[in-house]
Design a protein that fits this description.
This protein has helices at residues 6-11, 16-30, 39-53, 59-68. With 72 residues, the chain is mostly helical. Helix 3 (39-53) runs antiparallel to helix 4. The protein is globular and about 35 Å long.
Length: 72
């Protein structure tokens, strides 16, 4: 899995601790738990949740990640 740096890239100077939590904890530890839930399924669940909640701001990024995880 490619290392996530979006938090650092977008918020690193403004909110370094939040960027660390986003990149290292959320994506580095939680998202990468392939044994509990494969990335393909995790992406499908995340995309469905974003759509159903109307959270379209993050949808583009997660669609791209989903494509990398084999969703077509």
């Amino acid at each position: 899995m490619k290392k996530q740096t979006a938090g650092h890239d977008l918020l690193g100077e403004f909110a370094p601790q939040f960027a660390h939590l986003n990149d290292e904890l959320l994506f580095g530890e939680v998202w990468s738990r392939e044994q509990q839930l494969p990335a393909h399924q995790r992406s499908m669940i995340t995309i469905a949740a974003l759509i159903s909640a109307g959270n379209f701001e993050q949808l583009s990024a997660h669609l791209s990640i989903g494509k990398q995880n084999g969703i077509s």
